[in-house]
Design a protein that fits this description.
Blueprint lengths: L1 E3 L10 H8 L6 E5 L7 H7 L4 E5 L17 E5 L5 H14 L3 E4 L9
Parallel strand pairs: 1-5, 2-3, 2-4, 4-5
């Protein structure tokens, strides 16, 4: 149930546009996992109608034991900032709950305008 946002050249397009194309976010709660700083991503998601953005950096060991909140509708997972155990934990929880996940490499996103 995941979507990889990289194209065949290994580069990532504008993540916000792709999230909106694949899902739409109006009135939804989005969990963003990975990356210390998200830059303009939360504000752009809110401009597109996301009700709430929850961010887990994935750096703390406590993240391994977190449960995805029931109010989460969509998940964006920046896999280049996560350890494998956390990524697998999120994937398993999302699959069990039927929550769609977009996988992206944060370091390739570039500037969101």
């Amino acid at each position: 149930m995941g979507i990889e946002l990289t194209n065949g050249k290994g580069k990532t397009g504008d993540i916000i546009k792709k999230i909106i194309i694949f899902w739409g976010v109006s009135g939804m709660t989005v969990l963003v996992v990975g990356a210390d700083r998200l830059g303009k991503i939360p504000s752009k998601l809110q401009e597109e109608g996301a009700r709430e953005i929850i961010h887990w950096s994935g750096r703390q060991k406590s993240c391994l034991n977190r449960t995805i909140p029931k109010k989460v509708d969509k998940i964006v997972l920046f896999w280049d900032f996560l350890n494998h155990n956390l990524m697998n934990n999120i994937k398993q929880q999302a699959k069990a709950a039927g929550i769609p996940v977009i996988f992206s490499k944060r370091s390739l996103i570039g500037k969101v305008s």
